[in-house]
TrEMBL record:
Belongs to the ammonia transporter channel (TC 1.A.11.2) family. Pfam families: Ammonium_transp (PF00909). InterPro entries: Ammonium/urea_transptr, Ammonium_transpt, Ammonium_transpt_CS, NH4_transpt_AmtB-like_dom, RhesusRHD. GO terms for cellular component: plasma membrane. SUPFAM superfamilies: Ammonium transporter (SSF111352). This is Ammonium transporter. It is found in: Cell membrane.
Amino acid sequence: MSLPQNLQPDKASPDWLNKGDNAWQLTAATLVGLQSVPGLVILYGSIVKKKWAVNSAFMALYAFAAVLICWVGWGYQMAFGKEFIKFMGRPNVSLGEKFLLKQAFMGSFPNATMIYFQFVFAAITLILIAGALLGRMNFHAWMVFVPLWLTFSYTIGAYSMWCPGGWLAKKGIIDYSGGYVIHLSSGVAGFTAAYWVGPRATKDRERFPPNNILLMLAGAGLLWMGWTGFNGGDPYSVSTDASLAVLNTHVCTATSLLTWLLLDILFFGKPSVIGATQGMITGLVCITPAAGVVQGWAAILMGIMSGSIPWYTMMVLHKKIWLLKQVDDTMAVFHTHAVAGSLGGILTGFFANPKLNRIFYLVDDWEHYIGLAYGLQSGRTTAGFKQMGIQLLGIVFIVSLNVVMTSLICLAIRLVIPLRLTDDELQTGDDAIHGEEAYALWGDGEKYESRINSIYGAEEFPPPGPKGEVQMA
């Protein structure tokens, strides 16, 4: 039977290319990209104090651009290329048309699509780290930190867990879409970097109100809906598993948001909008390592736990544990990403359905990819405990990798560039760092002065006359 003319193989569409899979993969990648630009750009720029809006948003925008150049320059091959050492691939450029048009190592689409898809994951990881450093990190130090951390931390985690030749991938670790590689990494790295950079100004730590909660919600909405591509794109095909992953993602997230909201009402008496946003994020993070390999009821249970356990660590334990109180983590990425990411990895080890795992990994492997709950149910207890052990090993590896590498990178940068802004810059904020401010409005207790746009060099309006009328020159 002959194919329709638009599906006939040709030079632009070789016989291995699946147009539907390729179209979805490009769409999913763009949805993930929108989570960062403009999603987290808007969220960061609006959730901070007004004087930090420009700097916070621009840290995210810069990271997105810088990661792409590093990714095609050497990063992709280090994360998904031929083995260089046990933990990483050989650095190489990913820009030649011969390589870009070849079939990717997985999926029915070209390397160019895979590089783009994996880039947006790498970019959002760095942007999440920035969340812990808002309001005090030297922007020049951030410019150096981004390529160094991508090279010496992210690529190692991605190669170990996602590349078919990675040592944890061979052991059978389940990280569906980045609970370890992205969220646990960014949470631990952000917390570690925040320690080395130092805290915000005392005044900012005591009072740091959002400058625009409505815009914050707009950024959060882009983050939530963009997760459709985040988890729905990881089967690398338009499959039933992709559909399941998308639905589980939203079910878990909604449950987590509502759980966090309920706890805020019960213990603090008011439904906090910022709290609900945090609950949304922890739900998204928790389901990420499990999205397409757990059943819907498990997604709901994971949402209940992701809305309550990180809430407890943030609202209760944070005030009791000395180390947590010492480190100024602006966006609480330790709780929303490190705690929620670890929780998701452990719950994946418990709830992972062997049938769904075989659909996702396309292997008949009865020794790996079975959650402890199903191991106990089916009598394969050893396999279930083994899977849980591998999940815990992944947590230990990612935490150790990021504490060590992030510390070494920060210490190396500190030899050349101060990590923290000066006290004068911390007092002024955006205008001192970028010479720009977010709004043509005045707040934070400053007196409003009516001015013509200074870019045209115009003088101030003349003062009003005795009856309030303006005196003309």
